[in-house]
Specification:
Blueprint lengths: L19 E5 L32 H13 L4 E5 L9 H8 L7 E6 L4 H10 L4 E5 L5 H8 L5 H13 L3 E8 L8 H10 L3 E6 L17 H9 L4 E4 L9 E5 L5 E5 L12 E4 L4 E3 L8 E2 L1 H5 L4 H13 L5 H4 L2 H4 L6 H4 L2
Parallel strand pairs: 1-2, 1-10, 2-3, 3-4, 4-5, 5-6, 6-9
Antiparallel strand pairs: 7-8, 8-9, 10-11, 11-12
Helix pairs in contact: 1-2, 1-9, 2-3, 3-5
The chain binds S-adenosylmethionine and iron/sulfur cluster.
The site of S-adenosylmethionine (SAM) has 21 residues, from strand 3, strand 5 and helix 12.
Length: 341
Amino acid sequence: MSESKEGKTPTDQLGRPLRDLRISVTDQCNFRCAYCMPKEIFGPDYPFLPKSEILTNEEVHKLALSFAELGIEKIRLTGGEPLLRRDLVPLVSCLSKIDLVKDLSLTTNGTLLPRYAKGLKESGLNRINISLDGLSPNVFKEMSGGRGEPSAVLEGIEAAEQAGLEVKVNMVVKKGVNEAEVLPMVRFFRDKRITLRFIEYMDVGNSNQWKSKEVLPAKEILDTIAKEFPFQPIDPNYKGEVAARYRYTDIPAEFGLINSITKPFCSDCNRARLSANGNLYTCLFATFGHDLKTIVRSGICQPDLTKHISGIWRARKDRYSEERSSQTSIQKKIEMSYIGG
Ligand SMILES: C[S@@+](CC[C@H](N)C(=O)[O-])C[C@H]1O[C@@H](n2cnc3c(N)ncnc32)[C@H](O)[C@@H]1O
Ligand code: SF4
């Protein structure tokens, strides 16, 4: 495949353009969600990345410039917990100045937002997704590995709204653990007119020991919501949007479903992922990444860096979710906390 109609944007082997970049800014986290960083594995001896391996703000900026040249219009910062990175606000500030990037957002567990929300907004962050898996303190802790409180996340949501950031809330639903929180969460965020998005529990990485029977299919979530509230499907905001959107018919608010297990969206996937140590992954379920840190640190000029990344994208043919099978599920995959959700 060659270039898309728009010009320099490369398309991959399945004709998919490069549009969306996730940047993981740290592999550390203050939570130990069982579906992401189970505490039994991510304990005190876990080999987190040494500081020298983590890309500096200047290196991230140089890479982002090349991605922007290739058609990236949206950048999402993630982790690990991105707010643990000390120089995150200056990073947001320099990324927000890249003209070609139209949308700069962040995914966070929200607990540190009361400290950072205002600075993030002032530095040019547009939107924020805050993760919250339940309002009941017991259920919340069962999901978060015993860390944090739902009240702290709610304070983070409040701080983000007060700072003027557009807020969405993400809830991972694990069958038999937090499914009873679906309706209380819908009621709460509907009243606040905040978009709540349900995420099917995914087989990212290996440490969560994912089993398909622990997935609550999006269809069951829809049936649960329908018992109490009227809604209708609405069109995606853009091609390749991962969330299926629904609008309540009685009030101006919506919710979404990210059903990558029961309804894979590989055919429209236009997303690249950069880990905190500069590996480029062309799929969330990848087994290996392309080392860009060594290349950036070699002092490569910007046009050559852009050309190199373009070559990686053109060779891409990943479609893991559509090919998911018992065989692919046991492959050694990159952990979510490393690659960013
Ligand atoms: C890896 S986290 C990183 C950002 C931040 N720490 C947070 O929790 O929002 C990004 C998103 O991935 C989701 N996530 C992590 N592991 C997952 C899994 N196995 N299946 C589905 N979603 C997952 C989280 O709930 C979160 O919404
Ligand atoms: S989902 Fe986010 S908050 Fe939970 S362990 Fe993973 S990185 Fe941390």
